[in-house]
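In this supplementary section we document a worked example of the pipeline. Step one takes a protein sequence of length 299 as its only input; no multiple sequence alignment statistics are reported here. Step two produces a three-dimensional model, which step three serialises into structure tokens for compact storage. The input and output of this example are shown verbatim.
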Amino acid sequence: MAGRMEPVRNKENQNNDVENQSNDFVYKTGIPTLRSSAHRVKYSPKHRHVNDNQGCCLPHLLCQPLLLDYDVKKYDFQNVLLQVLEECKTQTIGHCSSSSLKRLEDWKVPPQSVTRKHHGGTCEDSQAYLSEQLATSTEFLFLFDNFVENVVLSHLKEQLLSLRSDGEPMVKHTTFYYQRPPTLRLQPGPARAHVKMHNDAQYGHQDGEVNFWLPLTDRTLTKVDLHLEQEDGICTPMQVAVGQVLQFHGTRVNHYVNSNVTPYTRISMDFRIGVEGCFDPHWAMVGTSADHSRRKVQI
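The serialised model returned by step three reads:
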């Protein structure tokens, strides 16, 4: 089930939730998340070059923020990912602080895992380790593939079919290129750092990609949301609940994630899907290094 977003206006500065709380921070470095993929940018912005082969614009319908509901019992990412995390090295990825009713919100990330090497941390090694654990989890990948193909891609195909003109023949198959595995992000708190405002074109992503953002923890506990910039320049929190996935055009839409000042951990996963006719699987921005593998699927 899909529904248009009705964003809640928020004119406050993205850093206002951390004022007067500096003494309470457990995580004091500038890195907000431990993620399962390395940064894809090799050079500074002035050394990245856009060429004429970066795909073409998506249909307007696919660029609009939209919520999809899914069955959390059928696609139980929370429990499957909790198992993946618990099989990881505690000193690298962390542990669940609750011994009875285990939940992702109670996951504790070691502070050194969100601290750069040159500051005495292990962030880069921890990212590589988490990436490997996710990429080799057959149970998780099986669940993810089913979710993408049966929920997300079927929805995208319906959107594309709805754009057909009267009398226009139906296209039998559409090719999609989806990121696999997705990026898993763990944002522990309380912390000062936030995911800064950006768009994905700055990191080598194409216009022909659609973003999907799926929270795995309760936003009422973590107080963390993905914020999208609207046409009037105001950023709004999307307020996506567990059991929902947000579709948006991250390549061009500026977005950020606010600081997590709570004692809980915010966990989410996200991925991008390239659409046939708009996405070039062979293109890459000069000065970037792709760190996402993709699966080609026809529907």
